[in-house]
Amino acid sequence: MRILVTGATGTLGQQVVPALQAAGHDVVRMSRRAAPDAGWRQADLATGEGLDGAVRDVDAIAHLASSPYKGKYTQRTDVDGTQRLRDAARRAGVGHLLFASIVGIDDIPWKFFRQKLAGEELVRDGVPWSIVRATQFHPAIDMVLSGAARLPLMPVPSQVPGQPVDPAVVARVIAENLAAGPSKQITNVCGPEVLTFKELATAWLEARGRRRPQLPLHVPGALGKAFRAGALTLPDQPTEGPTWHDWLHQ
């Protein structure tokens, strides 16, 4: 099966591409920059330029591309770009559009999450589809904590629970979903354990051999209430794979 992958160079894409290749699929990667070889196709979600050519002669699309927290550009890529991709896929007769999304977007009043939810709604309209939602990637939490640790007091939303997951585990599920064909369902991929961000930060500091006093960060309003209520997690749906402590010590 020939599969087009958007966002192939991102954290998830770097795991999905080899997972698909190992399963014997012909993988074509999409980039808005000039395609370096025959395994790439140039197209831009933000403008639609090149999309019809990018989706030509592919059996399925793994839509992983995202540009979070970039203002109007996020709207143009994650929402409008998803619509452009869906429409191009429909014109080309693509048999399966898989969309990578995020656990909790139904219940968290955060602009980027609303944009991802809008992307899901677009995907479910007009093309055979599947959606894979994931909890927080280990490298993403590592990046957030690295930034917080640059300050003398490390701000941490201590009471917010998370459920970190290895991107390789999510990639495996995406590959399985693509092989199975469009399910017209949402599959959740969650980490093996739920930890508060205080616990995540404490383990991170210990593994990195660093000392920083943590400053409890209170997220106000409906957003904070949803976070503290565990909207980022699905404790009853753990997926086997490396824990946060495992990943930190690898």
Note the main sheet: 7 strands, parallel
Assembly state of the chains shown: single chain
Count of β-strands: 11
Q: Give the C-alpha Rg.
A: 19 Å
Q: If you consult CATH, what is the topology? A: Rossmann fold
The unreliable regions are none
Q: Given the structure, what is the number of helices?
A: 9
Please name the fourth-level CATH homologous superfamily.
NAD(P)-binding Rossmann-like Domain
Q: Span from first to last CA? A: 33 Å
CATH C-level name: Alpha Beta
Physical arrangement of strands within the biggest beta sheet = 3-2-1-4-5-6-9
Number of domains: 1
Question: Strand pairing plus helix content: what structural class?
Answer: alpha/beta
Shape: globular
CATH architecture: 3-Layer(aba) Sandwich
Helix content: 25-40%
Query: What percent strand?
Result: 15-25%
Domain NAD-dependent epimerase/dehydratase: 3-101
Pfam family, one: Epimerase
InterPro entries: ComplexI_NDUFA9_subunit, Epimerase_deHydtase, NAD(P)-bd_dom_sf
GO molecular function: protein-containing complex binding
